[in-house]
Design a protein that fits this description.
CATH architecture of the largest domain: Up-down Bundle
CATH superfamily of the largest domain: Rhomboid-like
Order of helices and strands: HHHHHHHEEHHHHH
Number of helices: 12
Helix content: 55-70%
Structural class: mainly alpha
Strand content: under 5%
Largest sheet: 2 strands, antiparallel
CATH topology of the largest domain: Rhomboid-like fold
CATH class of the largest domain: Mainly Alpha
Strand order of the largest sheet: 1-2
Number of strands: 2
């Protein structure tokens, strides 16, 4: 596949999904760090950390207790943007940028966020199934947080979409994307190997990334409902938006029809110049008679 002529995602571009995801992760991290600092200043270091975990972190993560999670359903979305360590947020952002950049270039801007969200939700599902139905994991207390399952979905989706894609093409023809994928998978699964529930969450995210691309290649776009939903919300708060959109579509359609008719008229006139009017078919003569009305 071509590795040049790519569009570089620019900071501030309104439609850039990758920048949005990176910004969301960074923003939540800064909020958590500022809140943690506030608790540390209000209490001693140890007491502040305890209260911070109980009063704040609890609302931003997916816990093993499914009933507790139902009380805070937003945690199934916010957990995949929540990091409490500098290395955690840096790692997530770097890998998200590395693979999200390629995915956005190949699949378009509108596929990055849906794959990220689907991967995060699949990770949460695998995590809850593991801690609730696997006896050896039923007593685990590790909370699910961070972008790892969502980023895993981005990584696997990108690789499934373009397994022959090469990075750094000037270095001996480039490095196959699957090599970078293998490095990430080994690094991610190795880091999560100490807790099987977190490991299964990452596997669930990767599986979802593969399924998303598999269905997309079969013509089933799992992201379409998201953008239809967003468009519906926009139309509710901006009811005048639809009319200009339909008008614009009609103008474009009319312009296209006029261009096609003009091209056909030019072809018929050229035919008359070369072979005479008797060479025209009845259909062409009819079109020529109606040309002033087209």
């Amino acid at each position: 596949m071509q590795t040049n002529n790519r569009k570089v995602p620019l900071l501030g571009q309104d439609t850039n999904a990758l920048i949005f995801l990176i910004g969301a992760n960074a923003l939540v991290f800064l909020i958590m760090m500022f809140t943690h600092l506030t608790y540390t200043l209000a209490y001693d270091a140890q007491g502040g950390d305890v209260f911070f975990q109980k009063q704040i972190v609890h609302w931003f993560v997916v816990s093993p207790d499914f009933k507790s999670d139902l009380v805070k359903p937003w945690s199934f979305l916010i957990y995949m943007f929540t990091h409490l360590s500098v290395m955690g947020i840096i790692g997530s952002i770097l890998w998200l940028w590395a693979f999200g950049y390629i995915l956005q270039d190949l699949a378009g801007n509108k596929k990055v966020i849906p794959i990220y969200l689907y991967g995060g939700w699949a990770g949460a599902l695998f995590y809850l199934l593991a801690v609730n139905f696997i006896p050896s994991l039923s007593h685990g207390t590790i909370l699910l947080m961070g972008a790892s399952p969502a980023v895993m979905a981005i990584v696997i989706a990108t690789t499934a979409l373009a397994p022959s894609y090469r990075i750094y093409p000037l270095m001996g023809g480039g490095i196959p994307l699957w090599v970078l994928t293998a490095v990430y998978v080994a690094f991610s699964l190795g880091a999560a190997s100490s807790n099987s529930a977190i490991l299964l969450a990452d596997i669930g995210g990767g599986l979802m990334g593969y399924l998303f691309i598999y269905q997309l290649q079969k013509g089933n776009d799992w992201s379409s409902w998201m953008y239809k939903f967003i468009e519906m919300i926009e139309n509710i708060f901006n009811p005048d938006k639809k009319a200009p959109s339909r008008k614009y579509m009609k103008v474009v359609k009319s312009a296209d029809e006029a261009f096609i008719n003009q091209k056909r008229l030019d072809t018929i006139l050229d035919k008359i110049n070369e072979h005479g009017i008797d060479s025209l078919t009845p259909e062409e003569k009819s079109f020529l008679d109606n040309a002033p009305n087209i």
